[in-house]
Amino acid sequence: MNRQMISAVAHGDHPIAAPLADDSVARLLDRALPRGDERLLDLGCGQGAWLERAVRGRPGLRAEGVDIDAAALDRATERFAREGLGGQILLHAGNAREFTPADRFDLVLCVGATHAFGGLLPTLEAARAHLAPGGSVLIGEGFWEREPDERTLEAGFGADEYAGLAGTVDKVTADGWTPVYAHVSSLAEWDDYEWSWTGTLAGWGLDRAGEPDGAAALEAAAAHRDAWLHGYRGTLGFVTLLLRQTPR
User: Fold this and answer.
1) Average pLDDT in the 240-248 region?
2) Predicted model pTM
3) Angle at Cα 176 formed by Cα 106 and Cα 147, nearest 5°?
């Protein structure tokens, strides 16, 4: 199983690829899309979970997503067609870093996919290039709730990989952005996300006991669960920021 397949399976019961509950997602979208007729771009959209939630109840919204995982986009396209949402959502297969749409967007979204651009600030730089005048960015990023200890670092993180919450916001404001709203994921949201991620993947593996992919899924689920419970639980936080460009 490659990384994309593992992620697709693991997010089967928690399609938002970040520690956010459904009501948190709804509240963020309500803040980010006040009119309901905006143009939205999701950089690293995966199977289009944010796009689907954004267009529901907003018939005037037009949404686009780009992702390198063509198989995930195919599944999303089929799902949108079944649910009558295909006319509002356009998906593009390709590298989000190289995406060059003809139009600009009122909202550019990247939650749980900043690694595709090399981190927070490079993601914001990419988003800036796609924004219409007065547009906003909705971006999700990790931060240290507390200083990472040895167990967190052994789970595969670097001590300087993230800043604290204040330091993260300072980076954003120094880069020319003003936060107009934010949501800090709770420990309960983290736990629900991680139990769903590891549990869904493990269940998939158990259903395929004796098969190579089943064994690989169980191994990946156990490694992720151990890294979370013995490593970064309560140390790694997640903030989703709604940003507008600061006037020069």
Assistant:
1) 96
2) 0.95
3) 110
